[in-house]
Amino acid sequence: MIRVTLLGATGSIGQSTLDVLARNSEAYQLVGVSGHQRLQELLDICIRFQPFYASVPEAAANPFQQQLRDAGCRTEVLAGPAGLEQLAAEPGSDLVVAAIVGAAGLLPTLAAVKAGKRILLANKEALVMSGALFMDAVQQHGATLLPVDSEHNAIFQCLPDHFASQGLAGSGVERLLLTASGGPFRGWSREQLQSVTPAQAVAHPNWSMGQKISVDSATLMNKGLELIEACWLFNLPPSRIDVVIHPQSIIHSMVSYRDGSVLAQLGNPDMRTPIAHALAWPERIHAGVSPLDLVKYGTLSFEAPDEAAFPCLRLAREAFQAGGTAPAILNAANEVAVTAFLERRIGFLQIPETLERVLQLSKVCPANDLQLLLSEDQLARQLARQIIEQFH
Ligand code: NAD
Ligand code: MG
């Protein structure tokens, strides 16, 4: 049995992971879960899967433990941020699915890295924020990092086995082609984007996802975060990565080789495929995903991203190039701006505007210390809140 800890069990990735685990229950045992909101769902998960541990926020710990007991469930509650890190590093698990959204996932994901786990990374913000520090810790503690983000998982599947040891030149890889659906506002002008609502922004044409990543997909910030994620995961500069809009979301990304070959990974847009791939790697398991019917789709199309209407892609590229704390600052400002947009305190176009101004006003420093990174994250959040206040 492979013992699995699932951080962010109540989220969209969490639900997809539980579905794959349930289909393969002879091979996988869920030993730990975490949840932050929607604790009734976490309770149902505990009753169904009977994990050893469940991590919840401090204030909810005692009543949650009582509810578990009342339900005859022996799951032990771990409380607050320390409990979450303890859960991530628990010696009784073989792999950790990092599916918390945003910077909140950094410390628990790093705890799993430091415990040398096999980590299935969905929480891209953790890697974007801490970049070199994160990758150094992976090396130092002998952890294994497997990408769950569909694009990075696709690239991982299209790279040769020796890529990690031989790098670009040694493996003949020229470029990565990161595909993007373009989100719900593909083809829209800045003028049209001015008045879009949160409900329109979270209605993604192809994927069903959590709210934050849905807004990120609509602004193209998700692709910006993924560009940075790819630079760290595959150790290459942004100049080697092209973003291609592919509205059908059937090709999940591609690798372009020296000899002109381009390898792509295809499949229906369903996160259970990359999750199942990373769970079983290097083997293959059932994911519950229906077979790809190419004839039904008929046409696969491609276009260039409109960086004038969607500046987030450029902002992410610039932040990566600035290095140090810049990506963490960008990520923090984005989390604040997305929340403000969802609460209807700012308009859609003010999301990139906030990011641009926070980046302009922040001092970028080297990001070789975790405490410093966390305090820069807090500073960028404060600054973003001030800028958002001034919009009124
Ligand atoms: P979601 O909002 O559906 O779920 C987020 C999870 O994180 C929930 O379990 C929630 O309880 C937990 N959480 C939220 N705030 C927390 C906090 N402060 N402390 C601890 N836990 C907290 O999000 P999602 O769509 O499942 O995305 C999760 C991650 O996976 C994100 O980083 C996202 O970018 C990435 N991802 C998601 C998809 C997708 O299809 N949903 C695809 C690729 C990558
Ligand atoms: Mg993705």
UniProtKB/TrEMBL annotation:
Catalyzes the NADPH-dependent rearrangement and reduction of 1-deoxy-D-xylulose-5-phosphate (DXP) to 2-C-methyl-D-erythritol 4-phosphate (MEP). Gene3D superfamilies: 1.10.1740.10, NAD(P)-binding Rossmann-like Domain. Signal peptide: none annotated. Its EC number is 1.1.1.267. It comes from the Bacteria. 1-deoxy-D-xylulose 5-phosphate binds at residues 124, 150-151, 181, 204, 217, 222-223, 226. NADPH binds at residues 10-13, 123, 125, 210. The gene is dxr. Keywords: Isomerase, Isoprene biosynthesis, Magnesium, Manganese, Metal-binding, NADP, Oxidoreductase. It catalyses: 2-C-methyl-D-erythritol 4-phosphate + NADP(+) = 1-deoxy-D-xylulose 5-phosphate + NADPH + H(+). The lineage of its organism: Bacteria, Pseudomonadati, Pseudomonadota, Gammaproteobacteria, Oceanospirillales. Its cofactor is Mg(2+); Mn(2+). Residues 145-234 form the 1-deoxy-D-xylulose 5-phosphate reductoisomerase C-terminal domain. Belongs to the DXR family. Residues 4-131 form the 1-deoxy-D-xylulose 5-phosphate reductoisomerase N-terminal domain. Residues 266-382 form the DXP reductoisomerase C-terminal domain. This is 1-deoxy-D-xylulose 5-phosphate reductoisomerase. Mn(2+) binds at residues 149, 151, 226. It is an enzyme of class 1 (oxidoreductase). Pathway: Isoprenoid biosynthesis; isopentenyl diphosphate biosynthesis via DXP pathway; isopentenyl diphosphate from 1-deoxy-D-xylulose 5-phosphate: step 1/6. Pfam families: DXP_redisom_C (PF08436), DXP_reductoisom (PF02670), DXPR_C (PF13288). GO terms for molecular function: 1-deoxy-D-xylulose-5-phosphate reductoisomerase activity; isomerase activity; manganese ion binding; NADPH binding.
